[in-house]
Every structure is written in C-alpha cells, then in structure tokens.
Amino acid sequence: MDTAAAPPSPTPPAVADGLEHRLDPRIVRVDRIGGWITLALTAGPFGFALIAVLLNPDPPVPLKALLTALWAALSILLGWWLHRYPQLAYDHASYRIDDDVIEIRRGVVFRRVISVPRTRVQHTDVSQGPIERAHGLGTLVIYTAGTEHARVSLSGLEHGRALAIRDHLLPRGGGDAV
After folding, report:
1. Same domain, 151 and 129
2. Which of 58, 74, 89 is the last residue of a domain?
3. Each residue's pLDDT tens digit, 102-148
4. Do 69 and 131 share a domain, yes or no?
5. Gap between the Cα atoms of 88 and 127, Å rounded
6. Residue-wise over 118-139: b if at least 16 C-beta within 10 A, else e?
7. Three-state SS across the chain?
C-alpha cells in the first residue's frame, strides 16, 4: 500500500492579483462575426435596392454605374473596418482587479479608464449571447450606485473567469450590501 500523499491540486490564480490582464483573444473572432452580421444587415438591403434601380429602364446608365460603384466602395470599406476594428479594440483593452477596485481600460481613439470601487457595487451579472457562448466567453456587467457609469460592462472574458470575478465582487460576509 502506497502511503505517499497525492500532490496538492494547483490552486487557480487569484482574481484580485492587482495585475493588468488582457481580454481573451477569442473576443476578436466574436466581434468579427458580429461585424459580418452588421455588414449583411446594412449592405444587403441597399444591394437589393440597387438591383431594383438597375432593373428599372428609366435611370440613365451613368447613374446606375455611379450607384453601383458607390455601393461597392462603401460595402468594401465598411467590411474592412468591421474586420479590422476588433483587433484594434482588443489591443487597447485590459482590466485590473485588486481587493478594493476593478479598473477597466479601453478605447482605440478616445481612451477611457473606468475604476469601480467594490464599495459602490450594487450587484453583478454574467451574460452570454449565442456567439459568445459558442466561443466560451461571457460579459461581466457591474451595476453601481450613482448615475454616471451606473452600469459597467466588460466583455471578452473567458466564462469561468467572468464568474470568478463576479463572485469576487459580491459583498463580503453574509449580509446584504445595502
């Protein structure tokens, strides 16, 4: 009989380590899928309207050519931007949690730093849309007292990490936070 004790299971990293963390890189793909859906919902109807104009014999050919070129250029430009922007947003987003505050940094052109003290947290939620769920991601939503930034969300977290942060932000002790 072997009496050697089993090695202790590794403990998960602490949520409130005070270090700056990046979002999960899968958020880039999730946001790109959302961009493709946006492109289909915007360029698609305008494309159908363009087809109706092209099938009508009344407008002159130069106008038809101009409208076709304009639609194609705008669709390509919008598609390129909706594909490129998620990577830029990911590169400029991070969060940091310590025992007293959660700090969220984001913004490509206009940079923002949002600090939410734990004492201001009213309640928290973790939500998942269908695309996030398929990729194992979640969005942490923090509701605070006050009017400005009364609802702060942090998308792009691995779902288990989002749940761990939510549990960390819950009020300490068994009593109600209010």
Report:
1. yes
2. 89
3. 999 999 999 999 999 988 888 999 999 999 999 999 999 999 887 76
4. no
5. 23
6. bebbeebebebeeebeebebbb
7. CCCCCCCCCCCCCCCCCCCEEECCCHHHHHHHHHHHHHHHHHHHHHHHHHHHHHHCCCCCHHHHHHHHHHHHHHHHHHHHHHHHHHHHHHHCCEEEECCCEEEEEECCCCCEEEEEEHHHEEEEEEECCHHHHHCCEEEEEEEECCCCCCEEEEEEEEHHHHHHHHHHHCCCCCCCCC
Q: Which residues pair with 140 in a beta bridge?
A: 126, 154
Place 174 in a pLDDT band, splitting at 50, 70 and 90.
low
Q: Please name the residue that has the structure tokens 């309207």.
A: 49
Asked if 23 contacts 157 with a C-beta cutoff of 8 angstroms, the reply is yes
- Asked whether residue 64 falls in the same domain as residue 45, the answer is yes
Residue range of the domain that includes 39: 26-89
Pairwise CA distance, residues 62 & 126, whole Å = 53
User: Is residue 16 in some structural domain?
Assistant: no
